[in-house]
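can u do me a favor
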């Protein structure tokens, strides 16, 4: 069983705020599969730093507007 990541994200909200961008469209723009985007959105997978920056770039926003790490 995969342990969920502590990293949270706003990808789903950002997709809808940017013309209802689909998971498949986002995946194509950053060069991953739709399943990878689903896993990231659901908190089952933490993207690489490079992928995180690419996702933020698609939305034209800062990295910490897309991904958050809870303060302990």
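np, heres the sequence
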């Amino acid at each position: 069983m995969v342990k969920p990541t502590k990293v949270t994200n706003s990808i789903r909200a950002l997709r809808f705020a940017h013309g209802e961008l689909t998971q498949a469209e986002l995946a194509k723009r950053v060069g991953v599969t739709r399943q990878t985007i689903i896993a990231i959105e659901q908190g089952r997978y933490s993207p690489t730093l490079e992928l995180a920056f690419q996702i933020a770039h698609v939305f034209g926003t800062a990295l910490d507007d897309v991904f958050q790490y809870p303060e302990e």
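The beta strands are 8-9, 67-68. hope that helps!!
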